Amino acid sequence: MFNSLKIEFEENEEVIAVIRKHPICLAKPIFVLIFFLVLISFFLKFFLASLAGFIILLVILCILLGYSLSHFLLWYFDIFLVTNQRLIDIDQKGIFRKEISETSLDKIQDVKCQFGIIGRIFGFGDLEIESAGTLGKIIFHFIPSPEKFQEIIQSAKKRASSFTSAEASANNFRT
Question: How many domains would you assign to the chain?
Answer without folding.
Answer: 1
